[in-house]
Amino acid sequence: MGGLTQDPAFRATTFVVIDFEATTPAGHPAQPTEVAALALRYEDGGWSEAGRYTSLIRPPDFAPVTPADTAQTGLTPEQLRQAPSPADALGALDRRFTEGIQYLLVAQHAATEANIIHNQREHCPALAHIDFLDTIPLATHLIPGLPNYRLDTLLAYFHIKQPPNRHRAPADVDVTAQMFFRLVSAADEDPQLSDLTALVKLAGRTAKGNRPVQGGLFDIEPPAGEDLSTTGPR
């Protein structure tokens, strides 16, 4: 293996693959309806699971689940009326993060998850200060020339079987983790990605809670060709 997985900083990091499902009411930011997180560590030449969390989330009254939402996720208004509140669901997730441990969140199109977390930060203050790795710029670097870098395209490229409940957060987290394993394996052979610092420089995204107050004045442009929109399939 190459340098990346031998890097002490990489091995000391807990990578948390995270995914939300959400409904997006007109005039409001996306409101989460489901969250899943899978904590992973690289040790002894392979990946091990360090923890897992999933919960439905009851959306506010101004963000009802639409027929289109149900068609995509299978989640119904009846199911979500019985779900925990954002404070309960995200608070329980937040308490799983231990002070003093180095974490990085991993997401496909991290801007989507970052925006939801930032908008819910009162319920998950620890989570809101954890930076991201975005699998899209990492995949773009490692496997250039794909027609796009949506999750389904990358799953097909890596021959990862589509889960029957695609677009549910637990299923999407599992296949994103499988894709992340393959991307790390490819990065291990890339001399440009010899350590965690190089990986973060390429695919890292600073959590909004960690940016300077006027950080927008100094934001670095995303890599060429990266889609930062928050709409459309991932």
Description:
The chain has 234 residues and is an alpha/beta fold. It has a single domain (4-213), classed as 2-Layer Sandwich (Nucleotidyltransferase, domain 5). 33% of the residues lie in helices and 20% in strands. The chain contains 9 helices and 6 strands; from the N terminus they run αβββαααβαβααααβ. It has helices at residues 8-11, 67-73, 77-81, 86-94, 110-119, 135-142, 151-157, 169-187, 196-203; strands spanning 13-23, 31-43, 46-56, 102-107, 132-134, 204-205. Strands 3-2-1-4-5-6 form a 6-stranded mixed β-sheet. β1 and β2 form a beta hairpin. α6 packs parallel to α8 (169-187). The longest helix is centred in the last third of the chain and has 19 residues, at 169-187. It is globular. The relative contact order is 0.18. The model is unreliable at 215-233 (pLDDT under 50).
